[in-house]
Amino acid sequence: MSLNPRFLGQNSTLPASPDEATLDYVPNPRVGSLYLVRFAAPEFTSLCPVTGQPDFAHLVLDYAPGETIVESKSLKLFLGSFRNHCGFHEDVTVGIGQRLTQEMKPRWLRIGGYWYPRGGIPIDVFWQSSAPPEGLWVPDQGVAGYRGRG
Predict the structure, then answer these.
(1) Where does this protein hold substrate (predicted)?
(2) Coil vs helix vs strand at 82
(3) How far is it, in rounded angstroms, from Cα 96 to Cα 88?
(4) Which of 24, 138, 145, 147 is the most buried (most CB within 10 A)?
């Protein structure tokens, strides 16, 4: 944890892979307050591990901070590093949630991966670290189910 994030205000290159990406965490400015932080990545991409073709998703990440919060530029670079990463939707979505939970140690975290169709079937993947803390306002993620051009 640092008061001086490595990427904020700096020219930063996109990491070659999620394993090479570094996430920065800074002290929670409202320790002891129960609140929710939401990040949305509506143009997330990774690669199909079988064909190597790009897969697209709308990711929504919600968390209730503990002692730290994730620095948003490092999160952006981490998510961007998946552009060259081959992984099934389930592995990518759950892996992002688990890494953030392991490193940041939030009070609660959930991720929704709303993947666009592969082989004609949209795949949505959801993961959460635990039940939400009592009293936490958890709004709907607001992503409609896939309807095609309808």
Answers:
(1) 70-72, 89-90
(2) helix
(3) 12
(4) 24
Tokens 């709308």 — which residue? 58
The residues that are catalytic are 48, 55
Instruction: Using DSSP, state whether 62 is helix, strand or coil.
Output: strand
Report the predicted TM-score, pTM, of the whole model to 2 decimal places.
Answer: 0.93
| Pairing label, strands 121-128, 68-70 | unpaired
Question: Which residues have a Cβ under 8 Å from the Cβ of 9 and sit 6 or more positions away?
Answer: none
Whether 90 has a binding-site annotation, put simply, is yes
CATH architecture of 18-128: 2-Layer Sandwich (3.30)
Tell whether 71 is in a known binding site.
Answer: yes
Tokens of 105: 């140690």
- Per-residue tens of pLDDT for the chain, all 150 residues: 556 777 777 788 999 999 999 999 999 999 999 999 999 999 999 999 999 999 999 999 999 999 999 999 999 999 999 999 999 999 999 999 999 999 999 999 999 999 999 888 999 999 999 999 999 999 999 999 888 766
